[in-house]
Amino acid sequence: MTFIPYDDRDGWIWMDGEFKPWREAKVHVLTHGLHYGSSIFEGERAYDGQIFESLLHTERLFRSAEILGMKPAFTVADIESAKAEAMARNGFENCYIRPVMWRGSEMMGVSAQQSTIRAAVAVWEWGNYFADKMSGIRMTHAKWRRPDPKTAPCEAKAAGLYMICTDSKHAAEAEGYADALMLDWRGHVAEATGANVFFIQDGAIHTPVPDCFLNGITRQTVIRLARDKGYEVVERTIMPEELGNFSECFITGTAAEVTPVKEIAGIHYQPGRVCEDMVHTYDALVRGKHA
Ligand SMILES: Cc1ncc(COP(=O)(O)O)c(C=O)c1O
After folding, report:
1. Where exactly are the structural domains of the chain?
2. CB of 194 within 8 A of CB of 259?
3. Quick check: CB of 208 below 6 Å from ligand 1?
């Protein structure tokens, strides 16, 4: 596969209040966000010119900032218009949107009280997150567990929390899997490395309680859609010993959308009626075609 590095592209990136040519949207190597993980971000998708749940994402960005004590110089309205203008300037109708905020370069120690909060919004065209999305992905168990909420700010979409996701995903990929299923610190089933997880048992949909991981916007959307369609949705503690009791499995996220899962570490699922229904119902909603 040929990669075009993200810093070797053309276009426009909104940065700290103005649009910069893509290649000039740079930060210095002595940046707090790079050294100490003091960065928060969002991941959004636009379909046919409309960002799905744009405001919810921007509000989550600001909630993440608040949780980490960051005081951005920009408002929700500023970021909303930056996202729309970034799409227009780059000429994208179907794309991924990445707002990010981080602590700048004024201070280079654990404390960064005087550092400015920097902000950027980039957009790019991004197809399926998983190459084999529709046939169902293969997952294995993750190397790391989601931390106790007392040890990390798990409600923030904070860059630092992704260290264990990237490492777990790399380990899974090294074994030929597409992703990894993370347990939480108690040993309960939690989520994938960048998506929430759902299981089907006797026609009902079961999903873990998001008490130590991101309660995804896609997760909440899929739960609402499923209930509207008459499915029973049960949010409960799910133990790894139960994985063999389910008939279908899928994961949800802005990037992953609704992706069927056909295996978790040797336990096989047959993506079937419920997976198909939720893939298509979510797709119709984000494209504005849901009844
Ligand atoms: C770790 C993690 N969990 C869950 C999600 C799903 O969140 P959302 O549906 O809001 O994209 C994401 C994606 O942002 C994620 O990175």
Report:
1. 12-124, 137-286
2. no
3. no
Ligand 1 neighbourhood includes 221 CB (under 6 angstroms): no
Structure tokens at 199: 């299981």
Mean pLDDT of 63-68: 98
pLDDT tens string 192-214 = 999 999 999 999 999 999 999 99
217 touches ligand 1 (CB under 6 Å): yes
Residue 142 Cα, ligand 1 centroid: separation in angstroms? 16
Q: Which of 144, 245, 244, 234 is nearest to 198 (CA)?
A: 234
- The single residue of 20, 143, 157, 169 carrying the catalytic annotation is 157
**DSSP β-bridge partners for residue 191:** 182, 196
Regarding the beta carbon of 216 and ligand 1, being less than 6 Å apart is answered yes
Which three-class secondary structure state does DSSP give residue 166? helix
> What is 12-124's CATH topology?
D-amino Acid Aminotransferase; Chain A, domain 1 (3.30.470)
Classify domain 137-286 by CATH architecture.
Alpha-Beta Barrel (3.20)
> How far does residue 106's CA lie from ligand 1's centre (Å)?
31
244 DSSP assignment: G
Give the global pTM.
Answer: 0.97
